[in-house]
């Protein structure tokens, strides 16, 4: 088990997940297997991942999953249409996190990896609205900062400005 997390967000994400999701539930984690998938498995969660398909074009893995929970950790900002993905989820529970839009920094865009770019960077109210419009009822949220040890105005602002936002939501009973 991890005593040291390579990223602060892993620690916060796991604490949030453990607060809201039972280890007896099955999870479909959107995105390919990654270091956090391994952390979830090491903490006794039953996790399967999507296989790298373009979720904007192919939601069949989501639609065919029998998982009771869907997790999406820093995925929705990469999609052109997160609404379509959110509507295709059959599970009744969702835990999703996003990097928040920072007023002092442009949206992230890798110059070398065409897929490692943010199409959306949400403010918390925008992400809440997207979830509600897609039929989800938000039950809990949390934000945290992502400080760096660099010198400058923007690194200083990262000590006080939340960078990550996580949500636990359930399928709206009206849908």
What's the layout of helices and strands?
Blueprint: H1 8-20, E1 26-29, H2 35-42, E2 46-49, H3 60-64, E3 69-73, H4 82-88, E4 93-99, H5 124-133, E5 136-145, H6 153-157, E6 162-171
Parallel strand pairs: 1-2, 1-3, 3-4
Antiparallel strand pairs: 4-6, 5-6
Protein name: Methyltransferase
InterPro entries: SAM-dependent_MTases_sf
Q: Shape, please?
A: globular
The level-1 CATH class = Alpha Beta
Which consecutive residue ranges, at least 5 long each, have pLDDT under 50? none
Arithmetic mean pLDDT: 85
Beginning-to-end CA distance, first to last residue = 39 Å
Reading side by side through the largest sheet, how are the strands ordered?
A: 2-1-3-4-6-5
Tell me the count of domains: 1
Radius of gyration, whole Å: 16 Å
Helix/strand structural class = alpha/beta
CATH architecture classification name? 3-Layer(aba) Sandwich
Q: Remind me, CATH topology? A: Rossmann fold
Structure explained in plain terms:
InterPro entries: SAM-dependent_MTases_sf. This is Methyltransferase. It comes from Winogradskyella jejuensis. The chain has about 180 residues and is α/β, with parallel strands linked by helices. The protein has one domain (about 10-170): Vaccinia Virus protein VP39 (Rossmann fold). It contains six helices and six strands, in the order αβαβαβαβαβαβ. The chain has helices at about 10-20, 35-40, 60-65, 80-90, 125-135, 155; strands at about 25-30, 45-50, 70-75, 95-100, 135-145, 160-170. Strands 2-1-3-4-6-5 form a six-stranded mixed sheet, with helices on both faces. α4 links the parallel β3 and β4. The longest helix is centred in the N-terminal third of the chain and has 13 residues, at about 10-20. The N and C termini lie far apart (about 40 Å). The relative contact order is 0.17.
